[in-house]
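Revision sheet: structure tokens.
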Amino acid sequence: MGLYATSLSNGPPVKRDASADASLVSELQARIENQRNLIGVVPGEGSVLGVWVYSGNIYAFRNKSGGATAGMYKSSTTGWQEVDLGQALNFDGTTTNGEFVVGASISGATSGATGTVAGLTYHGNWSTGAEGTVVLTDVSGVFADDENLQMSTIAFDAGEVEILEDDVITGSSSSRTATVKKVTITSGAYSTNDAVGFISVLSNSGTWTNNEEIRVSGVKRALVNGASEPATVTVAVAQGALYEQTLQPGGSYNFVNFNFIGSLGSEKMYGVSGVDQGFEWDGTTFIKINNGTATDTPENVKVFKAHLFYSYPKGSIQNSSTALPTIWSTTLGAAEIVVGDEVTGMEVETKDALAIFGRNNSYILYGTSRDDWNLTQFYTGTGAVSKTVQKMQTTIFLDDRGIVSLMSTLNYGDFKQAVVSSKVDPLVQKYKNKVSVSLRVREKNQYRLYFNDKTGLTMTFLNGKNEGIMPFSMDHQIVCATSGENSNGDEVLYGGFDDGYVRKIDSGTSFDGQTVPSFVRLAYHHYGTPSRKKRFREILLELNSDTSTTLVVQPEYNYGDGTVPTTSDYTINVTNDEWTVDDVTSDTLGIAVVDKARARIHGVGETMGIIIKNDSIYDKPVTLQGAIVQFSERGLKR
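Predicted:
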């Protein structure tokens, strides 16, 4: 085996300088386009239905070709990969012999089929007859409809101290061990030293001895009740055959990430679409949550006080069992609350409150569980347009009155509203019925509304105060968006579009390879003498720019009323200022902190406004720091 050199180095690496190497800029642009060609569309047809970031990965949902089902896709270095949703088996007829637990092996009493439990969801009380779904892996054989489903459990009696989930139990004489995943009490109580029931376990090391002590950390908890424990017992009845999980087509997806367990790495992703059951995804197992609703198509999802909350049509708000998002049992904390309006959004507020928005009313839910939920009608006549509720420093949403901020007051439990878009109300009213999606941008403290005509509004906040609203337009129609975090914890913004692409927002310098036309219009100014004519001679712009670019400056006089001739546009060249964060630590700067670009103009008027325009593909943003105008005064206007 030999090695052959294909090139030799000639000195250390040298950073190339665009000012000295004319080919560098064109090479960089060519590389940008080469990378753009690698971007692939999400497989399927129609618009992207939802996009989300979970555990540093990007997920997208889109109808599959033919439109019979939708698919869930994960972004990878080789393109979009469809997520296998796995196989599931519905069940009913649960018994008091124990519950399914993730990781345990189950079998069909008649068919002999086996599988490993990867996920579990059910509604109702297990001991009195629950119905649900179990997700299975490593399936062997074919499960039969209406057959008993069996699992190994350890029966116990004489229980005197509570046995908890994740306890490691040990047999006093057999020295067998197992990890507890679920305990079912069938009679008696620990308090009277006569609790009887079954323990669902994992990692069992062998057969236990009848009547030996079940110990945890050397302390007796109960006695083994049987000579051949663990024993195979019936825990439920199969309801139909094993099937491949699929997603209903269409819908509009909403998501939330949350860690119900509290341990590191236990955060999971929850989603709803309005056309199918909600789901849980942990990066490996996908499970549709079965909560027993007749038309189980939740539209909004939120987590509040360790409960998963869904909203349904006709004002139904439902929550899961406490800290058990896939279990909806009233004995474990599940509940339903009804509001008198179609729910358009939910958001968790300070002071232990969940804000619930209808289209025409808003509500506040206080409490910690079904035992003390207290729903109050916060504001009659003010609600939120669907898809506009976002959490900034306060909750922001679009209402018939404009863009509204929901703020807490100093008094416990009190909130107040404030319209923050009153100065541009005509613009907001024009678009309030055209909202496609909203987005929060934490890095820039911005609230954005995207409309269904490729336009939008962005509102910037500083110290909780609205500092300005700016309209914008796009080359592509966005239909869904998300603000998430990458693996480094940095904010990333993604949008799903009607052409099937997921695009990174606020990234790059173009509209997916097309030019970005932009302009800023500065206010008209009379320069201290509103009644005196002036000859305007020069505009000096103070700028920060990462790259060289070209700007077009257009002065306008006398509020554009046409009383003076319109002047020509003036083109100015901007050079990059080369200022970097490293220069802050240097006590000898030696470079320009702010670049100055000069436009010599010719115009006469009492007032002047300035429009600055740019139209480019590769130019980076330019920051306008100030403008210095040179003029000479003439006579009074008569």
